[in-house]
Design brief:
Radius of gyration: 26 Å
Shape: elongated
Largest sheet: none
Order of helices and strands: HHHH
Number of helices: 4
Helix content: 40-55%
Structural class: mainly alpha
């Protein structure tokens, strides 16, 4: 399997239930700006030569997909953290943590680390 074929196959994952290869390749066309017949040849490793611009187009689409997945995961983690904080908000003592007043915006740092330059403040 060529690198272009492997990248193309990872670009289309996950497949939708009942999706045909024709639909998958049609879904890839706007992402890569390649024709259906060319994607078909690359998919099955039938292309005698894969041009550098084609490899770059597939790699760019894959990088964009991966970047989007990272941001979706970050958003999902923030959402999960917010839900957990809501659960814990009024019952810190039940979870073994002392209750901290919610009005306090920052904690005091020992040894004056939050003082102005020169140690004066």
């Amino acid at each position: 399997m060529s690198d272009a074929s492997a990248m193309l196959k990872s670009l289309v994952e996950p497949w939708r239930p009942g999706e045909f290869l024709k639909d998958v390749l049609e879904r890839c066309m706007p992402l890569t700006n390649l024709k259906y017949s060319r994607l078909y040849e690359i998919w099955y490793d039938r292309a005698k030569r894969v041009e550098p611009h084609e490899v770059k187009a597939i790699a760019d689409a894959l990088a964009k997909k991966n970047k989007g997945e990272v941001w979706r995961e970050i958003t999902e983690l923030k959402s999960r953290l917010a839900r957990l904080e809501t659960i814990v908000a009024g019952s810190d003592e039940e979870f073994g943590q002392p209750t901290v007043p919610m009005g306090r915006t920052r904690l005091r740092v020992a040894s004056g680390a939050n003082r102005a330059a020169g140690g004066r403040g």
